[in-house]
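Exam revision sheet. Question 4 asks you to relate a sequence to its structure. Input first:
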Amino acid sequence: MATGGGSLLPLGPAKRRSLLAVLLLHPNAPVTMGRLTEALWDEEPPRHCRTMVQGHVSRLRAVLAEHGAQAHGVALVTEGQAYALRLPEALVDAHRFRDLLQASRGHQDPADAVCGLRAALSLWRGPALDGTLPGPLLETAAHTLDELRLTAVEELAAAHGRLGQHATAAAVLRAEAALQPLREPLAAALILALGKAGRTSDALDWYHRTRRLLADQLAVDPGSVLTDAYAALLSADAQASPPVRGAAPGRHQSAQPVPSGSEGTEETSPSCPPPPHTAVPRLLPGRPRGFRGRSRELAAIDRAATGDHGPVIMLTGGAGVGKTALAVRWGHQRSADYPDGCLFADLHGHSTLPERETGAVLRDFLLALGEPADRIPVSPEARGGRYRELTATRRMLVVLDNARDVHRIRPLMPGGAHCVTLVTGRGRLGELVASDAARLVPVGPLTAEDSTVLLSEVLGSGPVDAEPAAAARIVRLCEGLPLALRVAAARVATRPHQGLAAFAGELSDEDSRLDLLTIGDTGVAAALGLTVCHLPEPARYVFHRLGRHTGAVLDTRTAAALADCPPSQASMALDQLAAARLITETSPRAYVLHDLVRLYARTLAPYPSLRHTGTVAGTPAAPRRRTHTRVLLRPANSRGASPYGPRCSCGGPRRGRTGGVTRTAPTGGPCASDARSAYEAPVGTPTPLEGG
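Answer key, structure tokens:
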């Protein structure tokens, strides 16, 4: 409550403010003593509650009299066993807000509606009934007022939209959507406003952000209001998309992409008539910044994409090597070869987020292809059938990023012979080669020259040109890994007075190298941890023991000696580590362990010997005599290991008082599939690597 000059009245404690709030919510109406005690005491009121209410009323009357309330027609009166606040209702902001909101709805001119709604919203100074006691009565009233305010915001944005002021509408909505991220009507209105303002990319980002929040926090899919807005956005974008240059009316381009480095000519294909659709999805992320090199890999993808019957291409490589950037770069480079658009999905195979459900990805794909939300089948199998039907006559690119499981890939492969599926993943996924004739394109570290260029792109050419020897040393220590190079460049950029030489000196220290190649939740250790968490437990044990290896080449006998296990077990574990791209097989049974991977393996706390368990790669161990929870590779000095990344069970950097890093390698099973049980298996589940 404020004076006519805008000064706030000294109302006193929260109970007194709450009493006044109840009276203001019912102006000029008697409020019983029972109603007031219900609002002021959520539980059983004290024995002298009536006396306490009378004391608060007395003090409120004194404050009102002291500030001349009677001159404005304001009086707090007693009516039998109740109290009433007599005043002109126009003095109550909540009442004025409702009146202005109702009046704005009667305006035919949207400009008048904008003025009225802005006047109504200007009455708000913060959350409704702020500073009052929590309780059902006041919280319900506050929620009702807040809902009215959000409705007014949505109506204001709609009025701006009718005036063609879509950018203003988006700005109005965005501020509220950031505060109410799970309010689907608000997000839907923002998505449509951004689309109409020509910011389709931002609109798509907001949709996917909201969808992820709904899945993570509420475990639900988007409702119809949000999916309808998404479908409308994609449909509007398709109608605004210009026709593909060189494509004849009613015909597609040749199914053969133009080889890299050649111009070629476009052909028409009368045997492939255009499908009856309008939506042309463009879900590929923006072009990767600082992308350099990879000419050999790009050419290999070009060759693989020229196959018939829906080619499947698999980009495989270790953590942080740049597979996603390569796939996105090639997709943009060849976008004209796919006039029916591009679908993109991050499957979160190695991620701090749970793996994407196949049904949810298919729903997104069907919406992007123009399928009305109310016609999307319920079961994943039926969605997959409809998806293959819609893609049967199209020529599209489908990018399935960060894949780990073949069974999640196959349902997402399009049905058209002129579609190309591009998959990225860390494993070899040999099943995809066997069943779908997938072409493997290995993605390795960058060359020294390309690494230096990438460092210059991120950091700027000035520092690199000024200290070329130091730059070359950083490139060597980062081992051509794009992720490591980008983090290193970010480190140097945030400490511009240090210089490359000083940073290279720090980076040469093996004890702190992984620390320096980590910023926030991004870094080499985090990426490696997301791979390690999916290894079988015996392979994780062998991986940890390999951290002690300092030789140039690793063979089976050396690994067996380091791991204290039979050569047959070491051989199987090495195969699994090579399949996960943690080690590189250079010749039959000869492997190389890169320094960054070796350093990460070394930081893991010790396992018991495999000889104590007699297990490898799923071979059952002898029954244990006691039950336990599965918690593996705890930090050596910690009592309870916690995940290094947000909501992730994958183990990673934990900074101690000395500045060093202790890392955990998590148990088997899906990474971060359930944040509350990230480290635990059901009680009674035997752990193959537990010491007896």
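Marking note for examiners. The mean pLDDT is 77.
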